[in-house]
């Protein structure tokens, strides 16, 4: 089931260790240990293309291959936290790693990420002592009465997009070390969680060869199989199976698992068993890979071919169906894979398998300019060259951080590139980093700060008009030549040629920061 971190810190093998960060995590449950044998995330990236979330796991490492690079150590902490790791047990400080940097500790503290530092300057400490003791403590028989609360507590600590039925079942699978299958009334699999995850056992084949009554547990070969039929108002009848290898499940474990599924379905299971493009997009955004591939196969959608996303902020939902049909009619002329679904007030368009030779870059802007529904659209963000559904999800999350600010930051502008979104995120982080950083960024604009006209013109020219004199003149209701004259005077005052990209970037970021702090 697992053990509380504070219990583990009292074990003989960890008694001399120091908790360097994560004091708020002492009551969290540790469910497993792993080795971080590649601490450099640049080398590890290919192995991270996974939808797994390692909640409750501690990683053992010495940071051997990044021992002299504090920046990479901090990046490792951030990536491990994003993957759901509870923390690390750090070995050989003073032997392999010269010292644990205060910057690394601060990064961990900001994330509530645990760093347990083994005794410094010792080369006789062994990984095996911690592994044996901690795993023995984790595997101790414990009461399952609080199983529901324990899993829900873990789920509540996850990022919002990971609070799903599938991730809840994964947490349950790890705690009980059992396989889980959830099907619809036609025995079509909705979720399948294997334990261990790389298991090659054909669970569906096992279920086809056994008869088990509702609410009962039977043994078949090496498996104990529990079955329960549930009814959910949104999804109808669901069939829930637990398949534990070699051991029987206790009555409490079965009962608590059923209760947990019911709670998870009520919290996050709206249309969970539905077979539709809406459910497919939701599975992509929620990182539910098994469900995503099952739905994609059923709907004949090539999710691996998706490489472009449009995100449209919609202000009027009354004609959403017509807008969606219009977009699909337009996009299907250029793409074999076209999916468009409304999520909240945002229309997500996923496109792939481009079937023309013309440039794709202007298709989104061209649609916005010609659509009869353009008044419904507050903005469209164009996100090209997506390599997989993981990038679809992370890009969607990135845009959502700033989407509502776009009309206020870019006056009169409706079409945005993902690059512009990243600049907004960058400026937001800069503001959060402190007053000194903001003042340094805005210092570029100091010569024109007292001239409202020049400041307004520069912001409009760089942010709203994309450095286009004609567009800027239309937005400011002045002649094009007047804009050119003002920009020339502004460049002279700043000492930057704002018509040259290499020099205008600092001015662009300063203008963006100025508007952000003025919101």
UniProtKB/TrEMBL annotation:
Q: Where is the Purine catabolism PurC-like domain?
A: 7-138
Q: What is this protein called?
A: Purine catabolism regulatory protein
PucR C-terminal helix-turn-helix domain ranges (all copies): 456-512
| InterPro entries the UniProt entry points to | CdaR-like_regulators, PucR_C-HTH_dom, PucR_C-HTH_sf, PucR_dom
Q: Which Pfam families match?
A: HTH_30, PucR
Q: Domain of life of the organism in this record?
A: Bacteria
Q: Which PANTHER family match?
A: CARBOHYDRATE DIACID REGULATOR (PTHR33744:SF16)
What organism does the record attribute this protein to?
Enterococcus malodoratus ATCC 43197
